Amino acid sequence: MKKRLFGRGRYSLKKKKPAELTAHHRNAAHVALWDATEKKYGRTNRYEDARFTFRKLSSDDYSLTCMTLINDRGLGVDDEIGLCWNPIISKFIFKLISKVCRKKTFSNTPGVMTRELIETTGPAIIFDLSNIRYLGKFITPQNIAQGTLEISSFKTSEHILPYWKLDKAKNLVNGNVERVGLWDVTEEKYRRTIGYEDVSFTFSKLDNLDYSLSCMALINDRGLGVGDEIRLCWNPIISKFIFKFISKVCRKKTFSNTPGVMTQELTETGPAIIFYLSSRRYFRKHITPQNITQGTLCISSFETSEYLLPYWKLDKAKSLVNGNVECVGVWDVTEEKYGRTNRYEDVSFTFIKLDSLDYTLSCMTLINDRGLGVDDEIGLCWNPIISKFEFKLISRAVLID
């Protein structure tokens, strides 16, 4: 395997050794190791001290025994790793940088009816996190009903199987169900990744030779609907599928105007509204004394109809306009540029219709945490990708003595 020492202020193994080794060059020292390969997804795999030993060889080099790590990461010949000793935490830091993969194809032996999946002898495919290639898909009614995502035979052969170990790829193409892991990185910009366990999802071959990823939990958690755009890829560095929610299909809500019917019903109308994270539109508000004393933010009927309800599911929107209290989530993204998002839980806030037909968001905790004052300017929007309100403190009022 290729090795690369990385990071400023860290020590090369030949320049500095863990302190335990200085007593006697023949003694093996027990050392700790942290696997930071998945650090960008907010996860570090911390191994215990007893699992690894560090010793001096007969030459002037040293050896780190780490069979568990090699097996867990599925390391192969010519995979590139990074390794360093971090004296701040007194542990080795490991990172899998790139993975060597090869395309799989069926053998074409004359006279043999059953073709076997083999690895081609062509040039290796070097995969690193800078060349992730997502497969784009639009959600269909079948996806919703069956709780699956279909991937064509061509896309599976080109973008997934080359990065699988040969024995696992053979199992899949021979019709066996493979359990797979999946990470939802939709909220990656908010420094949040949802890691599903391997048992939640299965990947299998269909009768038409395409493939199917069973992921009802993901579809339900994300509230995916027909026409929503998603992206999917296989990441061989972490050996999991990576999912990203790209855009949401929404429709404006309006009250029906049926002649002779006294009770108007909320319905969806007009062309679809495609929502992307880049198209977020905050409506601005200045804090009033009433907001401070009551711990609420008022949103007009017009603002709710134009900027919130189009992005809500119809049944939830109906419940709100009919006077029911809806529990909602709020994320404070004021410090987003500094890599920090304050995530409040759904139970902290409620959204309700007033007698005046305007709406109010109950959020005393947020008002207190931010120390909001009269005439401070804030921004507020509903983000249908994460199904939560986003709050942003825009400016503070200047007090003049």
Radius of gyration: 27 Å
Strand percentage: 35-45%
Within the CATH hierarchy, at the fold level, what is the topology of the largest domain?
At1g16640 B3 domain
Q: Give me the secondary-structure category.
A: alpha+beta
Roughly how many Å apart are the termini?
A: 68 Å
How many domains comprise the coordinates? 3
Question: Which word captures the global form?
Answer: flat
Instruction: Quote the average pLDDT.
Output: 85
How many DSSP E strands? 26
* Residue share in helix: 10-25%
**Going by CATH, what is the homologous superfamily of the largest domain?**
DNA-binding pseudobarrel domain
Report the CATH architecture of the largest domain.
Answer: Beta Barrel
Low-confidence stretches: 4-17, 20-25
CATH class of the largest domain: Mainly Beta
| Largest sheet data | 8 strands, mixed
3D structure, described in words:
Strands 10, 11, 12, 13, 14, 15, 16 and 17 form an eight-stranded mixed β-sheet that branches. Strands 1, 2, 3, 4, 5, 6 and 9 form a seven-stranded mixed β-sheet that branches. A five-stranded mixed β-sheet has the order 18-25-26-21-22, with no helix packed on it. It is built from nine helices and 26 strands. It is an alpha+beta fold and 401 residues long. The longest helix is centred in the middle third of the chain and has 8 residues, at 166-173. The protein folds into three domains: 2-98, no CATH class; 104-248, At1g16640 B3 domain (Beta Barrel), CATH 2.40.330; 280-395, At1g16640 B3 domain, CATH 2.40.330. This is DUF2804 family protein.
